[in-house]
Amino acid sequence: MSLRINDIAPDFTAPSTEGEIRFHDWLGDSYGIIFSHPRDFTPVCTTEFGAVAQLVPDFEKRNTKVLGVSVDSVEDHGKWKRDIEAVAGVPANFAMIDDRDLTVAKAYDMLPADHYLPAEGRTPAHSATVRSVFIIGPDKKVRLTMTYPMSIGRNFAEILRALDAVRKTDGVPIATPANWVPGQDVIVALALDDKAAEERYGPLEIKLPYLRFAKDPA
Hints:
With 218 residues, this protein is of the alpha+beta class. It has helices at 23-27, 43-61, 74-88, 103-107, 156-169, 194-201; strands at 13-14, 21-22, 31-36, 64-70, 95-98, 132-136, 142-147, 174-175, 186-188, 205-208, 211-214. This is Thioredoxin peroxidase.
């Protein structure tokens, strides 16, 4: 069964470029982003991991740890990091785990429908949809998921925007409208009446009885 929003993210222990990782312990009280890809030393994956390398300071500002998942070895990851740095212009300063046995890929349901993979001779095509994203909260619950096919590189600016929206709305009665970015107005939940909403967020802009905007709370 696929993971659903608010499921507890499966815990796991795996070797990584930063030593053994016990996922829940490693996450601690931070948000986390798990992002996976088909294989090391492949073109799209190299550009994607380069994009993540460039965004590491932005994730750190948001109390968020990023974790790459690959079906290759820690040794290969170490070699591949040199290629990532050459593309990104910055070091790949984030952990990458070794998931050659597909423990994490299967626990997080990252594989295509025909996922009966051979133990040897696996190619990127065997794990064609292992290009997934999971945003995990400090409570270890799944907040957001995305899955892309092997041929389409992810938009990490959108992943960062989604993370901002998750953090903004976590535990408070607001939501974000389409295409929201930090600083723009937010939608006030119907759980608050107009008076309570204005006391909490200031004057409302009411466009429809059920669509009420307020200034983005700091």
